[in-house]
Amino acid sequence: MLFIRFIFWYYNTGGKMKIIVVSDSHGKDEVLADVLQKYPNADAYIHCGDIETAPSTFPQLVSVSGNNDMFFDYPQERILELGGHRIYVVHSHQFVYSHRVESMAQKAKELQCDIVCFGHTHVAFYEICEGVHVLNPGSLW
User: Fold this and answer.
1) Edge-to-edge strand list for the sheet holding 132-136
2) Helix or strand holding residue 16 (H, E)
3) How far apart are CA 53 and CA 55, in angstroms?
4) Cα(139)–Cα(41) distance, integer angstroms
5) The pLDDT of residue 83 is above 80
């Protein structure tokens, strides 16, 4: 089950990429370290906010700020270009709950992204909305 929830394979013209996507670890550094140890050869590591630890602790992670990361210097959102895709990474507390998925998909389209990775809800989620892949890996704990 861990493999399915945290690893997403994206196909591009050169083959496939392994991207580890996690969120909402809330300072549980040992759990995050376990994930990184189990998958040492990923092409990218994304954390969708509420990491609650200093950026220097896990420098391999591309992270964004969550609503509980007020003591750390992470950007509110990021755009990554990986394997021919543009990935919008955000912690979804910035979006109104009732239209969260649609709003994030619209923002991704405005930014010319075809994938959204988000956190905050602690619930794993995947849907294609308006042609944009929208996914949340859920909480690490």
Assistant:
1) 77-82, 85-91, 115-119, 132-136, 125-129
2) strand 15-22
3) 7
4) 22
5) yes
